[in-house]
Amino acid sequence: MRSPEAERTEESFDKPIAEWIDFERRPLLKTLGAGITLSLGSGLASARDDDDSDAEETDTTGSDAAEIDPQYGFAAPDVEAIPETLVPDHEIELHTEEPEDPENPGRPPFFHFEPTGIHVSAGDVVQFTPESPDHTITAYHPAQGFQQRVPDGVPPFSSPVLNAGSAWLYEFTEAGVYDVYCGPHHVLGMAMRIIVGDFGEDDVPDYEDTFEGSDDPPLLAPFSTEFLEHELNATTEGNEDCEWAWLTPHEILAAPALDPATIQDQGTVPFEDVLADIDRFADELPDRDEAEETAPTVQVRDHPEHGDILVDSDEMTLYMFDQDTQGESESACYEDCADAWPPLTTDTIAAGDDVTADLETFERETGEMQVMANGWPLYGFAQDDAPGDARGQGSNGVWWVLGPDGTPIRSDSNE
Ligand SMILES: [Cu+2]
């Protein structure tokens, strides 16, 4: 095994990185101790040290062992035929995600890396596996026509255009923040962030939260929504207000979910988390939709006549019954009464933001759990048709709406 220290000269590698990251050497050496051969000085890094017999059996390149080039990586035309000598430490998939309802798309497909953020150790090999055709993994680098968004000294690496069923491997030797994109789908927002090594907030490089040109002026930030809408409007005659419907790499890389500290904490950040940070697409997430639709058991609604009153999850008015005794955990309303005044029942109580009443449940004789606010069992009224109706208020002088703290509001509006 060659000595990495001998090949790793101060001028070519240590200096630029030391300017923004404090440590570098320690995790790298630790990784080296685990048996990884680094030969940076030669321009090639082989992923794993191997004895010669293994290399002969698995060699596909004509050299002693399959090697991962620092600029071109290692492309495997068949994902099933990756040399055994190139064992990846991590895998990232490249996806094309069609809208869920193809008849009514509502949005264009999402092209994305999965996960979209990942934390690896210096020297780790990452396998990129396309699940759909026409993807690349390409570093943001001036040589690729973009702001440098990889550590100093890292070459402008890129995979070839990959088809589904192939794979591309790359070894991340230098610690730091790597932003990469897919060439064919870059303009559609296909970008991701790889954090290599461990470092503190102070060591995060400037490019993490700048996007080339984004401050001066904002319109010129390449591939920002503003820029793309500007381009769209400029090239579509008579459509002054065309909106950019796709994701943009700018909003992907600026998402809080891809903050370097978040990526280090979580290890991996799924695309779903990134999407949740982007307002115009957040409602694409089915589980978050559900959470929004699950309204609290009891909430507060402003009634034009009675002011703030308690309502149910459908915003239907709730009432208390003077025949009940506050805090007794029992109901005086069954059968015909309960048909006209259906008890509010639930298995789990969730209070709306403005509800200040204590909410509890008790077991009715029917076995259902009825909700109490401030010790008063709660009921709806069968003759209320819509939110805002309070036709039961003052009925027979014993049914009353309640305020946010569960105090009955005994106005005589019906009489
Ligand atoms: Cu792509």
Q: What this model shows, in words?
A:
This protein starts with a helix and ends in a 6-residue tail after the last strand. 17% of the residues lie in helices and 20% in strands. With 415 residues, it is α+β, with helices and mostly antiparallel strands. The chain folds into two domains: 4-289, Cupredoxins -  blue copper proteins (Immunoglobulin-like), CATH 2.60.40; 295-409, no CATH class. The strands form five sheets. Strands 1-7-5-2-3 form a five-stranded mixed sheet, with no helix packed on it. A five-stranded mixed sheet has the order 6-8-9-4-10. Strands 13-17-18 form a three-stranded antiparallel sheet, with no helix packed on it. Residues 1-64 and 287-292 have low confidence and may be disordered. The chain is built from ten helices and 18 strands. It has helices at residues 4-7, 10-18, 25-33, 52-58, 225-235, 249-254, 260-266, 271-276, 286-293, 336-340; strands at residues 74-76, 90-97, 110-114, 117-120, 124-130, 138-139, 167-172, 176-181, 191-196, 268-269, 298-303, 307-312, 319-321, 359-363, 369-373, 376-377, 399-402, 408-409. Copper (II) ion binds at residues 94, 111, 135, 182, 184-185, 190.
Question: Brief overview, please?
Answer:
By secondary structure, the protein is of the alpha+beta class. It has helices at residues 4-7, 10-18, 25-33, 52-58, 225-235, 249-254, 260-266, 271-276, 286-293, 336-340, and strands spanning 74-76, 90-97, 110-114, 117-120, 124-130, 138-139, 167-172, 176-181, 191-196, 268-269, 298-303, 307-312, 319-321, 359-363, 369-373, 376-377, 399-402, 408-409. It starts with a helix and ends in a 6-residue tail after the last strand.
